[in-house]
Design brief:
The protein is about 60% helix and about 5% strand. The protein is built from 6 helices and 7 strands. It binds zinc ion. Zinc ion binds near residues 194, 197, 206 and 207. The site of zinc ion has 6 residues, from loops.
Length: about 250
């Protein structure tokens, strides 16, 4: 909270989640999620100091509240309990894939909005404003690859099959998960419109006025999309593992 990585509610949620993950999973389960939270928060701070313009679009700033913590790490809490009750290497692999997907998505946003760059709607590839949900860019995709690989490396010491197969599985799951996130962002995620400046935004308040619902489902917030992104990463790795027979 002191270095503004978390709000008060985010601090409480992180404390509970961290106790659960470190208490039941030890170092093995703690390293990957700490890697994600710490590096993403630093990246977010750096990006904001370089390009704060896109901030007028994002629903939330880089300071995480409890919903963001649950959306990104809550599934990890469920998996560490499952693994504690009935140990199975698959739980840890799913955990890494979920983190890879949410990290890929986060880094795609942070690195993709580092500087001004051409951004396209994932559905029709028409140019869109940078930072808009469902927008993809080359730099953002490189960010997604970097995020997936970083999470894969953070869990590599505890994997009991071939390293290259493991890296390929996690990279694919992370990348596809983040693309799925963009797809949801372009389709069902709630988008609002500022009544003053007419800008499409995730924010509920813009230019000091309440925004109007513009498109998507009002219940599908950015946090819901992030949760679905994580779940997709977990499902993709189960399918890939089955196909690759590792
Ligand atoms: Zn406005």
């Amino acid at each position: 909270m002191r270095v503004k990585f978390l709000t008060k509610s985010g601090g409480v949620a992180t404390f509970i989640l961290a106790s659960l993950i470190f208490g039941l999973g030890g170092i093995k389960w703690s390293v990957p999620i700490l890697t994600f939270f710490i590096l993403s928060s630093i990246l977010s701070k750096l990006r904001k100091s370089r390009n704060s313009q896109v901030e007028t679009y994002f629903e939330k700033s880089g300071v995480r509240d409890y919903l963001q913590v649950i959306a990104n790490g809550g599934l990890g809490g469920v998996l560490v309990i499952a693994d504690f009750v009935s140990p199975d290497g698959l739980y840890f692999l799913i955990y890494i894939s979920i983190l890879a997907a949410v990290c890929a998505d986060t880094w795609a946003t942070e690195i993709g909005t580092w500087k001004k760059t051409a951004t396209y709607n994932i559905l029709n590839l028409q140019p869109v404003e940078q930072g808009v949900s469902g927008g993809i860019s080359l730099i953002g995709t490189i960010g997604a690859v970097a995020g997936s690989i970083t999470i894969a490396l953070s869990g590599i010491f505890w994997i009991d099959f071939a390293v290259y197969q493991y890296l390929l599985l996690i990279l694919t799951a992370g990348l596809l998960g983040s693309l799925f996130d963009s797809f949801l962002g372009a389709t069902i995620q709630a988008q609002n419109k500022c009544v003053v400046c007419k800008k499409v935004t995730e924010k509920k308040l813009h230019c000091g006025k309440e925004t109007k619902h513009n498109s998507g489902n009002v219940w599908i917030s950015n946090d819901v999309v992030n949760l679905l992104c994580g779940i997709s990463g977990g499902i993709i790795v189960i399918i890939l593992k089955e196909i690759a027979k590792v």
